Amino acid sequence: MDFALTHDQRLMQVSLVRTLEQASSLDRVRRFAGDLKDKGADVWQALVEFGLAGIVVPEEHGGLGLTMLDAALASEALGAAVAPVPFMGVVLGPIALLRGGSPEQKALWLPKLASGEVMAAAAISEPIAGARDGAGVTASGGKLFGKALFVPGGMAAGLLIVADTGGRLHLVKGDAAGLTRTLMPGIDETRRLAELNFDSVEAEPLGGGPGLLGALRDAGWVLVAADSLGAAQVMLDKAVAYAKERRQFDRVIGSFQAVKHMCAEMAAELEPCRSLVWYAAYAFDAAPDDASLMAAHAKALTSEVGRFVARTATEVHGGMGITDLLGLHFWFKRLGLNRQLLGGPERVREIAARLQGLAA
User: Fold this and answer.
1) How far apart are CA 92 and CA 122, in angstroms?
2) pTM of the full predicted structure?
C-alpha cells in the first residue's frame, strides 16, 4: 500500500507554493504587517484565481471538491509563506454548510464561497478553547447576543459561522444589524483577529446536531497543525542554510557540533508531525472514528514542536534572528498564535483525554 501523497496532490502543492512566491513574498508580507489598512486583497485574489476559495466546495456548487488532506496541504503551504490570508474560514464555512445547512442555504452560499465573492469566518473559539473575559454567545428567538473573540478573518467575512454557548451553530450575514467588529491586538502581524459583538443579531440555525461543532473543531485543529508544520519547516530550513554560510573562527558555524545537534534535533522533532498531520487530515474524511483524537494529537504535538523549532532556529541565527531584516519573527509569531488558536496544547490534551474516557 502506498501511503505517500498522490501525484496530483504534490502538483497542487508545488503550484500553490509558486503562486505564493509571486503573490505573497516576504516584502509583501512585511507591507501587510506594517499597515492595518492593508486587507491583502491582491494576495486573496491570486489565491481565488488559483481555486483555493473553493477547495472543499463540491464541484456542483462551483468548487474543486477536494478533501481535508488537500486543504491541509494548502494550509501547510500558506504557513510556510506566512501568507496574510484567513484560510480557516475558507474550509470551515463550506463544511458547516455541507453538514448542517439546508438545501436553500447551500444553494445560496456555497457558489459565493467557491468564487471568492464572499469570505467566511468561524467564531467557535469559546465552546472549544474556553471563554475569556466574559465572552460567549447566546441564542434566543432566532437572535444572537454576546461576543466572540479570536475570530480569524472575522473583520472581512461576509458570512459568519457562530457557535453559541450550547454548542449550536448559526449563520450570520456580515452586514447583519446589531453586529459590530473590533480588531483585536495580537502577536501575529500576518493574520487579523476579530472581536465580534452581537446585539440582537438575526441568525439562521444550522442543523447537524452537536456533532457539527465537533467536526469544525477537528477540521480547525488539522488546519492549524498543518499551518504550524509549514511555518516550522521554513524556520528549520532557514536555520540550516544560515549555519552553512555564517562563519565564525574561520569556519562555518554548521561545522560546530553544538549547532549540528540543534539542527538535527529540530528535524527529528518535526518529522513525526508530518505523518501525524497528514493522517489526521485523511481521517477527517475517511476514518471518522479516528478523526477527533488524531486531530487533537496533531494540534497538541505541532504546538509543542513548533515552539521548540521557533526558539531553536532563532538561537542558531544568533542576534540576526530577531532582526526585521531576516523576517524570521514572522514565522516565530505565527507559530506562537497557532499554539493558542482553538485551544493551547494543555486544553487540547484535556479534550483528547475525555474522548478516550480517561477524564471526566
Assistant:
1) 7
2) 0.96
